[in-house]
Amino acid sequence: KGEKTLLYSGMQVALTLAAGRQPELRAKQVSQLKETCEDVAEKLKPLKRLRSLILWRCQIDNECAWAIAWVLIIIPTLDLRANSKLISVACFTGLASLRTLNLAETEVTVLSPLKDLIASGILVQLERYVYGKGIAVKGCPLVHPTPEVISQGQEAMLNDFRKMPGGLSSG
């Protein structure tokens, strides 16, 4: 009815089109992502205006994250939970529309590339899921900022970023 399913290389994706809503792409069953990251990005191109992309446990690595971010530059919700090959968030620095990012159970260690996004009011949460605006990081082996700094709140993280070379952008 309102759902269209695309199948490629072991990844079943449901594209739900509800009346008056933007499409949401959700990975339902994943065995192994066999296509190149460029292939994935190419298939996402027609969905440039996608509002939510949920790709948990999809073997997304840094290269695929760059490809996704390059295509979906205006996406507000991105769920990459449980992608153990994802270790960097540098590719998400240009996603100005990003409001919800789930990085829980990835191998991300450093959030400083997201410092401007965090400074804009997006809260980092030591949770597995985020409802509304936020960045979920439960289960990540974070070293900067540390979970201790995150648990002290937004201002503690911003102070930590200010101490870094380059500090916070003045934008």
Please provide a written account of the structure.
- With 171 residues, the protein is of the alpha/beta class.
- It is built from 5 helices and 8 strands; from the N terminus they run βββαβαββαββαα.
- It has an 8-stranded mixed sheet with strand order 1-2-3-4-5-6-8-7, with no helix packed on it.
- The longest helix has 10 residues, at 62-71.
- It is globular and about 40 Å long.
- Mean pLDDT is 80; it is low at 1-20 and 27-33.
Summarize this structure as a short list of keywords or feature phrases:
19% strand, 171 residues, disordered N terminus, eight-stranded mixed sheet, alpha/beta, 22% helix, globular
Short description:
Helices cover 22% and strands 19% of the residues. With 171 residues, the protein is α/β, with parallel strands linked by helices.
Question: Layout of SSEs?
Answer:
Blueprint: E1 3-8, E2 11-16, E3 24-30, H1 37-44, E4 52-54, H2 62-71, E5 77-79, E6 100-102, H3 115-119, E7 124-125, E8 134-136, H4 147-151, H5 154-162
Parallel strand pairs: 3-4, 4-5, 5-6, 6-8, 7-8
Antiparallel strand pairs: 1-2, 2-3
Helix pairs in contact: 1-2
Strand order in the sheet with the most strands: 1-2-3-4-5-6-8-7
Query: Quick check: average pLDDT?
Result: 80
What is the gyration radius calculated from CA atoms?
16 Å
Shape: globular
Number of helices: 5
Helical amount among residues, as a percent range?
10-25%
**Helix and strand run:** EEEHEHEEHEEHH
The parts where pLDDT drops under 50 for at least 5 residues are: 1-20, 27-33
Number of strands: 8
Strand content: 15-25%
Name the structural class: alpha/beta
Distance between the termini: 45 Å
Tell me about the largest β-sheet: 8 strands, mixed
